[in-house]
Write a structure and sequence with these properties.
The complex is a heterodimer of chains A (251) and B (461).
Chain A (H helix, E strand, L loop, with lengths): L1 E4 L3 H6 L1 H13 L3 E3 L9 H5 L3 H15 L4 E4 L2 H10 L1 H4 L3 H6 L3 E3 H8 L14 E4 L3 H6 L15 H6 L6 E3 L14 H4 L1 H17 L4 E4 L2 H13 L5 E4 H5 L7
Parallel strand pairs in A: 1-2, 1-3, 3-4, 5-6, 5-7, 7-8
Chain B lengths: L7 H8 L3 H23 L4 H17 L1 H14 L3 E5 L2 H14 L4 E4 L3 H6 L1 H7 L3 E4 L2 H8 L16 H12 L8 H18 L2 E4 L3 E3 L4 E6 L3 H7 L3 E7 L3 E2 L2 H16 L6 E5 L7 E7 L3 H5 L15 H5 L1 H4 L12 H11 L1 H8 L7 H5 L6 H14 L5 H15 L1 H14 L5 H4 L19 H13 L1
Parallel strand pairs in B: 1-10, 2-3, 2-4, 4-7, 5-8, 7-10
Antiparallel strand pairs in B: 5-6, 6-9
The chains are: A alpha/beta (251), B alpha/beta (461).
């Protein structure tokens, strides 16, 4: 099985350790991991700002780069969701995209649905309380968990995969899945609202008594991390793959 | 009437200056969202009801012309006068014509977002007709000369102390008496006078039933009932999307409406109007005002399924932290942010960006409108209409170029990682990212591509 890493552009620059943890985690399960160096942005910023030409170019480019792999796996729910659910706005008729679309996975989805893992490659002991951050696109577009709005049976991928970690204590914030306020360029288009939302979110995670905010989307963690550092708080944002690879404590 | 020139980001920033009031606003509305959840949870068939409502509305919209004509025939058969208004101005002229013909001096109105959309109050007032809004929240904002900030709870932006002050000034209540029961009684006594002296009543319409020609109005205060029972003339104004085919479909929507809107199993009053009372008149004005254009648009026609419950506002984290007054269109929040831009992208373009695309609105919507996706699609129209700020447009064009040239993007990323850490804080702290209280991320020494290349080389050594 040949898996291509799709590392979103900002993760490449700002969170290389999250990308590396993703690669190591997959390799830990004996998978051949490839990282196509010619990849760039998936086009979500263009799409979310109405630039259909830019979004369309990026979608075609992405499809060209990734079309020949067995699976395409990414440590970002939002970018994955853009490729999986919104490229259709631009290149729905593209036969290569139609073949690629079902092979695109967010990392936790991939571990659970494709690899169906029941243990981690290396045992991980993480004796800390963590507060789960459901990022919106992972939650509501990739169905990472049962969103609080829908009257459906409760499930949560992050909680389920953390059961494979020893010692970790999972907590949920009040308003268990409210948006943190990042929203891509929303964060700078409406910075006051964005930060107000983020401050509320961080406070709710802190109120659980957790030491870490754990999520599956580096963008939300970046936004909350910026607020945490501004306020000199001690809670730390952590990507789920950092825990699953045993890097959490050192991050 | 609302000021079209409001820019959401600026208005929201101004609202957030008073963080305490903003927190209160957020909590007050979140409480309604929680009530909605509690009610929805009690119905095991909640998600099926939503699907059913979606399907009934989708079917109706696909044959809207037939159902509207059927509705008209049946209403006229009941002796109701049916009028068609292509736009807001025609609606206002029709209503004024009815009132002028009967020499009406005072009109009592129950809540109707359509008349807000059409600007009916100022139109009639300029022509010498006194208009009294009789929904308590609407009355409050009318006395304050401001638009409603929410479509179901028009005065939700105000605390009881502010209402006490207003009533003291306008209705002569005791200064400093903030007791909600006292204030409500004072408003009721004042409104009773108006009900008794009005010459005509106007209501909105929640549902119009093609099969019967009747209209259904849902309120919690009974003001629509008093406003139609006392004066001899009843005018019901409705957008043309309010039609449902049959009476048997109504229950699907009444079960969803109040639960979604305010977290109650049903509205206190669900009033059915079929004909004028003896000696009276009943008129129905069916208004298009841009709805046919939306119906013809592949991306946005779903927004016509809306039953105006306001649940999308209550769940919207941006709405709760910015108030309805930060939106340029009369209907705020997620549904307003597709309806407003559909009406006029140049005026209301900023609304489409007042959204993190979290998608909570699409999930609470009782008729399953793809609200957050519609907002993204409205941004295409904003981009194409040239409403983006020049700096943002430049940024997007640069991003287009860099996406096609990853080596340049990598070079840019490297420069960023090297330069940002040595920038003086005075430079970065005024950026949109940092200004409201958010640090830039730490800049790692290497990008993942650099790390990966090094790792591959090591492997091959």
């Amino acid at each position: 099985m040949k898996v291509a890493l799709f590392i979103p552009c900002f993760v490449n620059e700002l969170y290389p350790h999250v990308a590396m943890a993703t690669a190591e985690l997959l390799e830990g399960y004996g998978i051949e991991v490839v990282y196509p160096l010619e990849q760039s942005c998936c086009g979500q910023p263009a799409s979310n700002n109405g630039d259909s030409q830019g979004a369309c170019d990026a979608a075609r480019r992405f499809t060209g780069v990734f079309k020949d792999y067995d699976y395409i796996v990414s440590p970002s729910g939002s970018c994955t969701s853009h490729v999986k659910h919104h490229y259709g706005w631009y290149i729905a008729e593209d036969a290569d995209y139609q073949r690629l679309q079902p092979k695109v996975y967010e990392i936790v989805e991939f571990l659970q649905d494709v690899l169906q893992v029941d243990k981690l490659p290396k045992p991980v002991y993480f004796p800390h309380p963590v507060s789960i951050h459901q990022s919106c696109h992972g939650l509501r577009e990739l169905h990472h968990a049962a969103p609080s709005e829908l009257m459906i049976p409760y499930h949560s991928r992050l909680e389920r995969i953390l059961q494979l970690v020893d010692g970790v204590e999972v907590r949920l914030p009040e308003r268990r899945d409210e948006c943190c306020g990042f929203g891509g360029t929303f964060s700078v288009d409406e910075p006051e609202v964005s930060v107000a939302m983020g401050e509320d979110r961080v406070a709710q995670h802190e109120a659980t008594g957790a030491e870490f905010i754990v999520g599956a989307d580096p963008s939300c963690l970046m936004h909350m991390g910026g607020i945490i550092r501004h306020k000199c708080r001690t809670i730390r944002p952590l990507h789920i793959v950092e825990i699953l690879t045993g890097r959490g404590g050192a991050a | 009437m609302k000021n079209d020139n409001i820019n959401h980001a600026e208005a929201a920033a101004a609202f957030l200056q008073d963080r305490e009031q903003a927190r209160w606003h957020d909590s007050a509305i979140w409480w309604v969202r929680q009530k909605r959840d509690a009610q929805a949870k009690q119905l095991p068939e909640w998600e099926q009801l939503r699907s059913l409502a979606q399907q009934i509305k989708a079917h109706t919209l696909s044959r809207l012309d037939e159902y509207l004509e059927q509705f008209q025939r049946n209403a006229e058969h009941n002796g109701v006068s049916v009028h068609w208004a292509a736009d807001a101005d025609e609606h206002n002229r029709i209503v004024h014509g009815i009132l002028a013909a009967a020499n009406v001096k005072k009109l009592v109105k129950s809540k109707s977002m359509l008349t807000e959309e059409c600007g009916l109050n100022p139109y009639l007032e300029q022509r010498g007709i006194e208009v009294i809004d009789t929904d308590l929240g609407e009355r409050i904002v009318q006395l304050r000369h401001e638009p409603p900030s929410h479509i179901v709870m028009p005065a939700i932006h105000l605390k009881k102390e502010q209402i006490s002050e207003l009533f003291h000034k306008e209705l002569g209540t005791e200064a400093g008496n903030n007791d909600p029961t006292y204030l409500t009684h004072a408003a009721r006594a004042n409104l009773r006078e108006h009900f008794l002296t009005a010459d005509a009543g106007l209501t909105g319409v929640n549902f119009a039933i093609a099969e019967t020609g009747g209209v259904v109005v849902c309120t919690n205060e009974g003001n629509a009932d008093l406003g139609t029972a006392l004066p001899p003339i009843h005018i019901a104004s409705m957008g043309l999307e309010k039609i449902i085919p049959r009476l048997e479909h109504l229950g699907v929507f009444t079960r969803l409406l109040a639960r979604s809107a305010i977290g109650s199993p049903i509205t206190t009053y669900t009033s059915h109007f079929h004909r004028a009372r003896p000696g009276g008149q009943m008129h129905i004005v069916i208004v298009d005002n841009g709805r046919s254009d939306i119906l013809g648009n592949d991306d946005f026609y779903q927004s016509l399924r809306c039953i105006r419950c306001g649940a999308c506002m209550n769940t919207c984290p941006v709405y709760r932290r910015s108030t309805g007054h930060s939106y340029s269109y009369i209907i705020p929040g997620p549904i307003g942010s597709t309806l407003g831009p559909s009406r006029d992208i140049k005026k209301h373009g900023s609304m489409a960006f007042a959204c993190t695309t979290c998608g909570s609105c699409s999930n609470v919507c009782p008729v399953k409108i793809n609200l957050h996706e519609q907002l993204i699609l409205q941004r295409k129209r904003a981009f194409d209409a040239g409403t983006l700020k020049p700096a943002k447009k430049m940024g997007l064009l640069a991003m287009r170029f860099l996406t096609r040239h990853p080596s340049l993007m990598d070079a840019g990323g490297k420069v960023m990682r090297k330069v940002v850490p040595i920038l003086p804080q005075t430079l970065t702290q005024h950026s949109a990212w940092s200004r409201p209280g958010r640090e830039l991320p730490e800049m790692p020494a290497q990008s993942f591509k650099e790390m990966w290349r090094a790792r591959q080389e090591k492997k091959h050594d």
